[in-house]
């Protein structure tokens, strides 16, 4: 499978990576309900994708409030063929909601928890998960760079932040790459983030390149479990028949076409694709090899 240089980090990543938000799903404990997820199925999904050549995983403490990281830790135990990317800063509120806390102590606490759940000594990429307007980005980024110097993190990245905040972080020290939502249905980053990434030589990995499943073959809202968040997603109101058919013609399948579309942008290094079982893990590896 092709490998692409991820910004100034020196990391070489495959064009697709394993997304883990869906495998963190545990109805009743996390508001982003993807329906029930069997842990052995999730582990087999990760193994199938890695065995097929995918070489990176993107996760976060937020996904199932640690469940996704714990599953990833079990799946990668004893393997040295995978780069582990995670995030920090999303905290659980007492009412079940979440909030951002990017103060230095919170970032350090999140990193220690991730290292423990993942069973690794160092994170290949630590990303600020979302914006925290209460904390200057300079303060947070200084903490990330301290963690790099201490050997707990190899590289730092920034997710879901504004372009001007990325520029401010760059003034403090190196940023390996950015992570943002990007798909044929969500193109907001074309105006600011992607041009900045090209200008500054930053890597970009994109989440929801398949629009949370709406740009996949055979997708139907009617088949989702009652609590699945996609039932009330804005995309559920769209008629996507023509777009899906166009993507299918371009990529041999809707999934293949949707991934080719995002990866055709010269700023995009890799696309995160969630997998939930062995079949989906194999499919991800097959599509990644064909891109």
Summary, kept brief:
This protein has 291 residues and is of the alpha/beta class. Helices cover 36% and strands 16% of the residues. It has helices at residues 39-51, 67-76, 104-118, 137-150, 163-172, 193-200, 241-251, 254-263, 278-290; strands spanning 4-5, 12-13, 16-19, 56-58, 83-88, 90-92, 98-100, 125-128, 156-159, 177-181, 203-207, 270-274.
What is the fourth-level CATH superfamily?
Answer: NADP-dependent oxidoreductase domain
State the end-to-end distance: 9 Å
The CATH architecture assignment turns out to be: Alpha-Beta Barrel
Radius of gyration: 18 Å
Q: Uncertain spans, ≥5 residues at pLDDT below 50?
A: none
Q: What general outline do the C-alpha atoms trace?
A: globular
Describe the 3D structure.
This protein has 291 residues and is of the alpha/beta class. It has one domain (4-290): Alpha-Beta Barrel (TIM Barrel), CATH 3.20.20. It is 36% helix and 16% strand. The chain has 9 helices and 12 strands. It has an 8-stranded parallel β-barrel, surrounded by 6 helices. Helix 1 crosses helix 2, helix 4 (137-150) crosses helix 5 and helix 7 crosses helix 8 (254-263). It is globular, with a radius of gyration of 18 Å. The model has no long low-confidence stretch (mean pLDDT 96).
